[in-house]
Design a protein that fits this description.
heterodimer, A: Rossmann fold, 5-stranded parallel sheet, B: Urease, subunit C, domain 1, 2 domains, 8-stranded mixed sheet, 14 helices, 18 strands
Chain lengths: ~300, ~425
């Protein structure tokens, strides 16, 4: 069964087969980026709009390149939040652009649910490029892709997601994605930013970094926003680094053959020490590379099916 | 002209009786309640065979947005919406712009209400500009017609101010209505805190934010002997606190909204901002406890918390959207559903009529008996309709019930002896 849908809002609503289908399609696209001429005509004549209501460099660039390598026309812009407060609603913005006959919106917004709101009001495809603390499905898909590439499987592995899970859309999408593909997901961090209800999504919760790292095949380190300290989610950044930051000592607890991942951008010295990010088993740049193939796959499977 | 309502099934909540009889309305009052009253002289006869006849509903908690947001609702149009939903008395909250925190502001609402379809009673603010810092002039506002006092929408976080306010209630005999929510604990929250908020990536409002403040207010009511009314209970624990408190402190009362009785947090699924309310919709366990509270009398009355909001604001994304839903026109059918789910109908009606009348000291309302104010509604319990934007008189259409099939509709609303709403379709049918 090939997954074709109008939208990609989150991994919560996808089946295991849907996810596997996206990953397989990505696999066939990956090779294109290593060619001398990095382009196929799969989406020629389609117009893709990157609608970013929140600043982003890497995700936006990744989507842009993915679209271009499929020969689509791409328009990217960051809508300043101020223009929203001037009166135009998110829906207005999207409908105005749709009136210029575009095929797909790639949406990032600081508000959870914004892509869904746009999706209900436009007939173009809508791909969630990160909404509030809700989901960031393409990030999780590229993470799945990267793990599968490195370890050969997802089924049965243990992944430890470490850090600010409460505020992380990356964590939510990864919990859904890895659980659906049969991995055991551990969520680890201080209790202020690791909500107990995550168990309802299928994650095992632990505040003990040792328990999280023990026998983990994948150590997934989340970015820690420094502002969290001001909001009293953390007593201090230093203390966070001491207990949860991955340094040489904690690296020593990780089993041989395990891989280190991070969605970027890294706060070196806070959640991850520089020397760990440079390790051979750190897949951080592979994640970025694979992001293109996965986003090509998602664009193709959504926008490509629109007549 | 007299009005004679014939052959209806009369629900009399104050005496907890029901039966078929006729009601004669003369000069704004209920002149007679008896079987087989003959029409004499100039008299409008309303045939109510097979229909319910009950006291006009009293909504002691609604927002009419005037002054300040007349684009969302006005006192006049809001009263039309209320009359259409079966309300004959509505109490509007003071979180307007400017706030109803002075004699002049109360007088403005009373003046505007002269043209209204039903009786509109303003609730005065507890503190100046609803800022929770300085007490507003209770006495002057009461004299001008304020029916109670509340900073609804915001909780008075300073316990000393709340204490003073409760002490003042003893002087004027008007309730202080508490919006019980620990604002520090609920900071930035947009929905019930739980597994669903975690999944949706939304900041939750823990149930304890309500429980803490209900407990505090009960303590202060015990300390002062003041007249406390707790607005919109939403959690099982808050119901339990009230249940215990009522044993030792008979002067306190509380309410629940019809939407907290009808919906759970599941309604916000898909980021439906029309289901974003304060306090937030909770879980099925809370809903069950609230219904039990209505049944066992812990909860004195049901309210709409009718809160109109513009479509633009509701569509600005779930987290940015304001709290509130409109509710006048869906309250009655949802209440009838409640009756189908095991709460005796007479009890449901009582919580909309005799209950609030007692809390507000409106002795001549909430009852169908001779000498009372003629606030009466005739309801067709079997009439089905679909809630759509077009079907609502309300200026704003922010309700999660859009598209929902409803059963039960008001046929006639009589307020102060005058017909203020009549469902033309049902009249022609008869």
């Amino acid at each position: 069964m090939t997954w074709h849908a109008k939208d990609l809002i989150g991994l919560e609503n996808l089946t295991r087969e849907n996810i596997e289908n996206i990953l397989e399609t990505a696999d066939s696209f990956k090779e294109i980026s290593s060619r001398a001429v990095k382009k196929v005509p799969a989406l020629r004549g389609k117009t893709i709009v990157n609608l970013f209501f929140e600043p982003s460099t890497r995700t936006k660039t990744s989507f842009e390149l993915a679209a271009k390598r499929l020969s689509a026309d791409v328009l990217s812009f960051e809508v300043a939040t101020s223009s929203i407060s001037k009166g135009e609603t998110i829906v207005d913005t999207a409908q105005n652009i749709e009136a210029m006959k575009v095929d797909c919106f790639v949406v990032r917004h600081s508000v959870s649910g914004a892509p869904e709101l746009i999706s209900r009001n436009v007939s173009s495809a809508v791909i969630n490029a990160g909404d509030g603390c809700h989901e960031h499905p393409t990030q999780a898909l590229l993470d799945l892709f990267t793990v599968k590439e490195a370890l050969g499987r997802i089924e049965g592995i243990k992944i430890a997601i470490i850090g600010d899970i409460l505020h992380s859309r990356v964590a939510r999408s990864n919990i859904w994605g890895f659980s659906k593909l049969g991995a055991k997901v551990y969520a680890c961090g201080p209790p202020t930013i690791v909500p107990a209800q995550l168990d309802r999504m299928g994650a095992v919760i632990t505040y003990d970094i040792k328990e999280a790292l023990q026998d983990a095949d994948v150590v997934y380190i989340l970015r820690l926003q420094k502002e969290r300290q001001k909001e009293n989610f953390l007593s201090s950044l230093k203390e966070y680094s001491m207990y949860y930051g991955i340094d040489g000592i904690k690296y020593g607890m990780i089993k041989k053959g395990a891989v280190i991942m991070h969605p970027g951008p890294m706060n070196r010295g806070v959640e991850i020490k520089s020397e760990i990010a440079e390790k051979e088993n750190a897949l951080i740049l592979d994640q970025v590379t694979n992001g293109i193939a996965v986003r090509m796959s998602v664009l193709y499977l959504t926008t490509g099916s629109i007549k | 002209m007299d009005i004679l309502i014939k052959n209806g099934n009369v629900l009399e909540p104050a005496q907890a009786t029901e039966g078929i009889c006729d009601i004669l309305v003369r000069q704004g009052r209920i002149a007679r309640v008896a079987k087989n009253i003959k029409a004499e002289g100039s008299c409008r006869v309303i045939e109510a065979k097979g229909l319910y006849v009950m006291p006009g509903l009293i909504d002691m908690h609604c927002h009419l947005r005037e002054p300040g947001r007349e684009d969302e609702e006005t006192i006049y149009n809001g009263s039309l919406s209320a009359a259409r939903g079966g309300f004959t008395t509505i109490c509007c909250m003071p979180n307007t712009s400017p706030a109803l925190d002075s004699k002049v502001a109360i007088s403005f609402v009373k003046h505007r209400a002269l043209a209204a379809a039903c009786d509109v009673l303003p609730v005065g603010a507890i503190t100046i500009n609803r800022e929770g810092r300085e007490l507003a002039s209770f006495g002057e506002m009461a004299q001008e017609g304020a029916c109670a006092f509340s900073d609804d929408g915001d909780c008075i976080m300073d316990s000393l101010i709340m204490r003073r306010a409760l002490e003042y209630t003893k002087l004027y005999g008007k309730k202080v209505i508490s919006h019980a929510e620990d604002k520090f604990l609920s900071k930035n929250g947009v929905m019930n805190e739980g597994a669903l908020s975690v999944q949706m990536g939304l900041i939750g409002i823990p149930r304890q934010a309500e429980e803490i403040m209900v407990s505090r207010d009960v303590c202060l009511a015990e300390l002062t002997g003041g007249l406390l009314h707790v607005a919109h209970l939403s959690t099982r624990e808050a119901v339990e606190v009230m249940k215990r408190a009522k044993r030792s402190c008979p002067g306190i009362s509380c309410e629940v909204t019809i939407h907290h009785l009808s919906l759970t947090e599941e309604a916000v699924g898909g980021y439906n901002a029309n289901a974003k309310v304060s306090p937030p919709l909770r879980t099925a366990r809370d809903q069950k406890a609230l219904i039990e509270g209505v049944k066992d009398g812990t909860i004195d009355c049901i309210v709409t918390d009718n809160a109109p909001h513009s479509q633009e604001e509701k569509e600005s994304g779930f987290e940015n959207a304001p709290f509130g839903m409109v509710g006048f026109e869906t309250a009655l059918p949802l209440s009838l559903e409640l009756a189908e789910r095991g709460v005796p109908l007479l009890q449901v009606v009582s919580r909309w009529t005799a209950g609030p009348a007692r809390i507000l000291g409106l002795e001549d309302r909430g009852s169908i008996s001779e000498g009372k104010r003629a606030d009466i509604i005739v309801v067709d319990p079997g009439k089905e309709w679909t809630c759509t934007e077009e079907s609502l008189q309300s200026k704003s259409k922010n309700t999660p019930f859009l598209g929902r099939r409803m059963k039960g509709k008001v046929s006639v609303t009589v307020c102060n002896g005058k017909i203020v709403f009549e469902d033309k379709a049902s009249r022609e049918k008869r």
